[in-house]
Amino acid sequence: MKIKNSPAMSLFQADGDHTLYKTRILNLGAWNMQLSSENNIAHGLTFAKIISAQCMILNDASSKLYTLDGFDKDANLHKGSLTIQTSNLRLRRIGGGVFTGIDFDDAVMNRGFIVITYLP
Asked: How high is the pLDDT of residue 14?
């Protein structure tokens, strides 16, 4: 599954506020999570305007989406983290967690998506 990277997929307005927020959706591209614990994605935005970012991870079968951050109850570990940096989004998976298995070792497919909310 792959979508077109878009500079502005949507606009919405917060309650009681007149500020418009934009959403950018980026493909993660290929990421063999079993071999590599980290992936950096350029976001192409002004750092000070970024409000939030969320990463969704797609398994090799393209049958399930997982959040990168959070807690894996079965492995009793945090799954990973997303850090917003000046130019990049730093994605890290934790060793021994759900993403180190064979369901996440395809090195060709788009591994998932990042949704960034930001000010125009």
From this structure: 53
